[in-house]
Amino acid sequence: MTETETEVVPAATLRAWQERANQQLGAFLARAARLDLPPLLWTLATNGNLVGTADSLSYTPDQQREAIRRWARCLQVEVDTDHVDGREELHAAWKHPKNGTHGCFRATIFVHRAGA
Questions:
Q1: Distance of alpha carbon 11 from alpha carbon 99, whole angstroms
Q2: What is the pTM of this model?
Q3: Which of 54, 67, 85, 95 has the greatest number of beta carbons closer than 10 A?
């Protein structure tokens, strides 16, 4: 293998990471029911990243912000906010301390300017 080549992650490893994230999703959904957290759109990536999105089809901009903040508070993680090209991007990264599952809660809010 040359210095520029990367080793491919074996499919069995990717499936194991996805299974672990799937179990974490089940735990999140159970916690959401207990704590009345807002539903999110969940995505499970090939590498096991688990992303919860407060989407603009389900929520108003204020509801999107509040959904991400509530989930972040539940896991005791910070919410980062960036303003880029007419969008407000909220992102709260998390990593499970024991099983290594990781991901984020996120929202993209399209900012409308008066008169636009």
A1: 19
A2: 0.86
A3: 54
